[in-house]
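Hi there. Long-time user, first ticket. I'm pasting a complex I've been working with (about 337 residues overall). I'd like to know whether the download I got is complete or cut off, because the file seemed smaller than I expected. Thanks.
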Amino acid sequence: MAEQSEQRKIENVIIVGGGPAGYTAALYTARANLEPLVFEGFQWGGQLQNTTEVENYPGYPEGIMGPEMMTQFRAQAERFGTRFVTDDVDRLELSDGGVQKVFLGDEEHRAKTVILAMGAEPKRLGVPGEMELGGRGVSTCGVCDGAFFKGQKVLVIGGGDSAMEDSIFISKFASELKVVTRRDQFRASKIMLDRAREKDNIEFRNPLEPLEFVAGESGKLAKVRFRNVETGAEEEIETDGAFVAIGHVPKSEIVRDQVDTDEDGYIVTEAGSTRTNLGGVFAVGDVVDHTYRQAVTAAGTGCMGALDAERFLRDADVPVEAHWMPGGEPAEIATGG
Ligand code: NDP
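Hi, the file is complete. Here it is re-exported in full:
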């Protein structure tokens, strides 16, 4: 019976997302005795689950594997009482300052605050070899993996600011770098494009459309097959690494018609805070961030979201009707593990 009333309580805070932002929000809210409930997703760990070595997270001078780092983030949040649901949220019903509802199928969870930390995912080309050779020559994160290609040949696919930024960064390590675009027009800002053009070891190739990433005998990427968009001719470029930098998609679909988002689907927060347009609903990490998209910046905004939620809970009166009504279906809450 005690267990049932525990299950029926309204949560202080539900966090949706299990990457650096979500786990940091969990750590801070757990240490504030808010007993956070985290819906970490079926594939918990976010984008770092697909990364190899992380060398740019402060505090790990020898580097750390992405999945191992996420295991540690999770364990640290769990140590202070965070509960986890290792599943994907199906639906949210958000309100402005009232009860926030989170659904797994028909199972309803209620909370006074919600921290949205669903992250973003790199856009994919959707061609053969792209996923299979991930971590074996094909990457979607120049800042993460560029340094592994010292003195090697690298391709960067894409013509926006992401591709230019990756190219400029990777050109410090690679001996030769080719930026390959499917058109001779670029979406990148002039300043970023000029900076990339100034690099001696960067060459631009177009109009080439990627067809396939091909492995060599070692099982690592050896070449990329392209089709010339104008002539139709096929061409292979030998390379040690290929970075796909064609943009990111914020994972905001489940709230897009409820909170304010920009034209690209990123959740809009008040400047200098994690507050969305709805009272009690906060957004952190890559689902908000167009620009930086690093584990450390995501963790930083996760902390901000936790502090904002804590302040909201301290200052706001939760409406009476926000409490769980007797007779409702008991919500099953999984504990960490
Ligand atoms: P963009 O949408 O600006 O550019 C995407 C690029 O990828 C385009 O060249 C596009 O080609 C190409 N592309 C898309 N799909 C394919 C495909 N299937 N095959 C081949 N090429 C493809 O995305 P970004 O991530 O570069 O930038 C997004 C936003 O983030 C921008 O507003 C940008 O300014 C900002 N940003 C800012 C940074 C900074 O200020 N430091 C750093 C990174 C991003 P096409 O043009 O033919 O569609």
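A couple of notes from our side: The first strand starts at residue 11 and ends at 16. The two ends are 23 Å apart (CA to CA).
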